[in-house]
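// run 5 | inverse folding | seed 20
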């Protein structure tokens, strides 16, 4: 039972970090696109915050992989 709990906990952490990473990647891609490639009225701060959000999303996805590898029994 304890082993099942650890497996479910690590799976939940993996899914949480993966979802957060996907949201950051999608949001960063959209804000960068809306600043550079479209005529949408976007604030200038998204010219550098968008790529930083993409990098943070990739790091969260990498962290999810590390959590899954280190916590699995």
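// decoded
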């Amino acid at each position: 039972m304890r082993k099942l709990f650890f497996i479910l906990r690590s799976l939940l952490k993996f899914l949480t970090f993966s979802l957060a990473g996907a949201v950051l990647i999608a949001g960063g891609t959209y804000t960068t696109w809306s600043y550079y490639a479209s005529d949408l009225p976007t604030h200038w701060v998204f010219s550098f915050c968008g790529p930083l959000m993409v990098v943070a999303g990739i790091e969260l996805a990498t962290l999810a992989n590390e959590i899954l590898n280190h916590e699995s029994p």
